[in-house]
Amino acid sequence: MNADLLKGHLDALILAIVAARPIHGYAIIEELKLRSGGELALPEGTVYPALHRLEHAGLLSSSWSGGARRRRVYRLTRRGRRELGVRRDEWKQFARTVEAVLA
Amino acid sequence: MIFCVRDLSRELARAGVPRRLRRRIEAEFTDHLACDPQAELGRAADVARSFADQLGTSRVRRAAFAAFAALAIAGSLFAVAFVSAGWAGPNGSRVYMSSAAAGYAGTVLVLFVPQLALVAGSLAALRAFRRRHDTVIPRREATVIGRRTAVALASGLASMGGLLLLGLEFNGRLAGWWTSLTLAAAAAGTCAIAIALPAFVFAARLRPLARGSAGDLFDDLDGVVPARLQGRPWALACFVAGAVSLAVALSGALQADGIDGALRGLAEALACLIGFALLGRYLGLRGQVPGRRSPIQ
Q1: What pTM was estimated for this model as a whole?
Q2: In terms of residue numbers, what domain contains B28?
Q3: Of the candidates A20, B45, B92, B152, which lies 20 to 30 Å from B144 by C-alpha distance?
């Protein structure tokens, strides 16, 4: 899938994946690939700046995991959950509209 | 392409990412490469630029909003102290006519500098608000927002200093409660502004690198400026100065002192135009903002 098509939706995709469980960066990217059947294979380095930005915006929180390997685990905040709901509604509306035109 | 965390670290440093944040990013990428040594992470320079662009944009916006909120609190306290002077003594409404040197300094600081804080802070917040949905804004635009925030915070602090001077200057000449109120307002306002300073410092340390223009006053006031004034910054400045002058003169007339009101209106208009001439370019109100060159081209 063209990476440009993803540009406006990367935040919503990340929020949706983190909503399921606390998760680290590599696992987010793997989950993206898995859920999209390999269609969403974006440059992996672009996910981390987005994660930091979403955290700065208060939509995600993060902490170091206590396991053997030092890794940053991200969680959805209450505000992030609200934002995800808004983004889902917007997407459904957008998809319905485009579908109506294209069909 | 093999991604090297050491290259990323160097590029992050070049992009201005602070050391502590750099360490965290390096740890995350190290973990990622431990999971998949062949991961397609892109070019280190591009990743570093992306961090600087996105985090720099978020930070400068947050700093502008924090400064505006702090100045709103400080401004309200300032207004309470200033307006209540009218009830604090027989000449309370003329507290700024003191002859002492401290009183003169306080007069300049409480009459003109707060207006600068209000204008700069509002313009910083307005630009940040207009760009609230943008993931990345150009470096020049971030520079404009940063400068406006800096001027607003510095002017806000100076205003609180002026209020403090005024409170001390009129201690004993006006009612005791007014002195206490004014000193407390100055202290509380200073604290409010001080709370907003860290956000400004964080934003100043990391600026986006994206190219693009900064825009000007007409971008800030898009849809508000009359068509005849579009693209003519000095004409707009004269229009605003005239409107301010008229408002002050009218308020003077309503207080049954038309001549004093007219003189104060004239002084306000002059202050507007002098401020526009001195700071217009620096604050991105007119012309192009040169700004510093991006460290990564």
Answers
A1: 0.85
A2: 5-42
A3: B45
| Residues B142/B54, Cβ–Cβ less than 8 Å | no
- pLDDT digit string (tens) for A61-84? 999 987 777 889 999 999 999 999
Count of structural domains within chain B: 3
- Output the pLDDT for position B290: 52
Is A91 touching B (CB cutoff 8 A)?
no
Residues A53, B58: C-beta atoms closer than 8 Å? yes
**What is d(CA B162, CA B160) in angstroms, rounded to the nearest whole number?**
5
* pLDDT beneath 70: ranges in chain B: 1-2, 90-103, 106, 256, 288-297
Q: What is the largest CA-CA distance in chain A?
A: 52
Q: CATH number of the domain at A83, please.
A: 1.10.10.10
Q: Nearest C-alpha of chain B: how many angstroms from A34?
A: 16
**Could you count the other beta carbons within 10 Å of the beta carbon of residue B11?**
21
Query: CB-based contact (8 Å) between B198 and chain A?
Result: no
pLDDT at residue B297, as a whole number: 45
- pLDDT confidence of residue A2: 61
Interchain pair A53, B135: CB under 8 A: yes
